[in-house]
User: What shape does this take?
Amino acid sequence: MEVEEGGVPLDEKARRMRDLLSSFYSPDHSASAASLPRNTSSRFATLDTINTTAFDADQYMNLLVQKSNVEGLLQKHVEMAAEIKNLDTDLQMLVYENYNKFISATDTIKRMKNNIVGMETNMEQLLEKITSVQLRSDGVNTSLFERREHIEKLHRTRNLLRKVQFIYDLPTRLEKCIKSEAYAEAVKLYTGATPIFKAYGDSSFQDCKRASEEAVTIIIKKLQGKVFSDSESIQSRAEAVMLLKQLDFPVENLKVKLFEKLEQFLVDLNLESKELTRASIDASIREFAKAIRAYKVIFLHSEPQLSKLAQDLVKKHFEATHLRIMKQVYSGDLLAMLRLIWTDVLLMDEVLPEASLPDCALQYAHVAVRDYISSAFGRLLRYISDSLMTAQFTPKEGIEEEHSLQTALDAGKKAVTQGSTDALLDFRQLLDQETELLFRLRDLTIDWVQEGFRDFFKKLDGYFLLLSGKGNTTSEDVNLTEMPGDKIAAGLVLVLAQFSIFVEQIATLEYPRQELASFASGGGVRDYGHGSVLVPAEICPIFRTSGETFLHLYIKMRTQKISVLLKKRFTAPNWVKHKEPREVHMFVDMLLQEFKEIGTEVKQLLPQSLHHKHRRTNSNGSTASSRSSTLRDDKLSRSNIQKARSQLLESHLAKLFKQKMEIFTKLEHTQESVITTIVKLSLKSLQELVRLQTFNRSGFQQIQLDIHFLKATIKDIAEDEAAVDFLLDEVIVSTAERCLDPIPLEPPVLDRLVQAKLPKTSEQNPIS
Assistant: This one.
């Protein structure tokens, strides 16, 4: 705390100074003294009593001596001496100031005394004059009293006659107002006469009342027409309603009819019609806004109903937008529609801000933009589907079939790459617009696009699986090309297999992920970690699995078709009564034709293998297989049936000691792997069918001839010749096991028949 030179705090000194002045000018010193405690034991209480009239010096000294030492007393002495000096100075200043004020007050009193001299005489003269005026006024009032009463009576009679004349002239004046369309004047006249009609309308003024009411009925009809007229100004229509209220007309009925008219306007407003131009729609919206403004002015507290009506208009706008989105529009069309809707919303918001139309439009735009993004991805999905489905149908005349699958695959690749790029560019236009409506949806739009790409690839895979019969038929995907069901072409399945591999490769590339990340830069509500939802770890396994599934399905479909062909061959004839073979059976040509078609499809879509062809020289167990085949041919050429049967036993023993051979290897996405797998499965099916039949000698020889011919022709088709030869040998062995007389054809005869067939087969089925 800041301290003065005397050691006394400034706030305490100021308080004591105020108390001193108060006690000096106070008229009652006892009051201030009584407010302080007389007996206190503290040091501060004693200091407070020193400035009162009840101060006890002896008690003060006793307490001070008891509580202070010598040094404290000396310090107190110095403080009190300083305070006394300060008080003397302050009192001297007060005396000087008050002295100047006393001198000024004395001078003022002297001037007042000089000015008042002579005023009393003037006041007495004024009183005499006022008394004289009052006496003369009373005389005049007394003399004119009777005449004044008569004049007032005549004035009252004159006013009554005027009112009677007004009542009699009212019908005529109302008719004049109707002709001049001065309806406000007419209502004013009629409402002025209403109290008289209520009092005397059934007696003295009955005819006037009836004529006036007829005129008022016409006025009411005119005012109603004015309210419903669109050509009238809003102010005129509002005045008409106010006049109807003054005439006690039930205005609520008008309110209901006008509101129904506004509702009917919305019903008749066809925003989906192509015949309506934008200018006509704008004119209709402006007319509607004008009607809303008039209704709001005319009927107070109608904002809730009008808000619902305005929100219905916005809803109708977006319903028309939704229908156009479903019919396929692009971002430019959507932006134009949203821009026009936002213009109408701002126009209506000026008229009816209570409806909160910008927020309402934002909610509907939220749905519209999301529907558009979903529709765009659905359109892309249909584009890809239509491109790939060309492989399902027979190529047109003049177009080689061997190029149809490659064309379909190339079209699908172009559709997914170019279509995705075009979709991103299309979506980017939504983000580049400065429209407030789209700006508020920017982050959500980015999220919807990213989610759309992720769902797009999943739906694409699901559709492929559904197309091939492997997926769930209850999936809620977009409407795509009609499902071919069980008649799906095997070539289409092979196209889908390669297309799945292509999509897997796209997902691993950096470019599309960078494009999607660039699109989402600086926006989005959700955090996707690396800025993109196109995560290879999620997309690649899906399409890798689908690619393998479709490849296995292709092999299965082709193998089943060949199995049907083989089944017809082995179930149709009676092999026990089979005739001696004269040539290779035609089913071999049909089988080779199937292999040719498979090779054509596979070679135009699948790449070649990087490994060397699996020949006899480098095939495990091929030497043993060759020896086994030679052993069978030599031993079965004997004419003795018993020796042939013993040779059959020896062949079985040879199989037990033969080096183990791997028939079915891992399937790869190569031409050789697919073709070889189909050939192996077909030969295995042939072996199983042989085991179900019983053959005579001719039947056995026919099978021997057919298999021998296949050995000569199939070596250029399949990759693993050793395994194929092994399976062909197994067919012959199985046939011998099921034969009643397994005596084979002589090798010269066998070679002659095969050589006779080879040129014909080369012409019919050239192996490429």
About this structure: The radius of gyration is 59 Å. The first helix runs from residue 10 to 25. The mean pLDDT is 76. The chain has four domains: 165-244, 250-355, 397-554, 573-767.
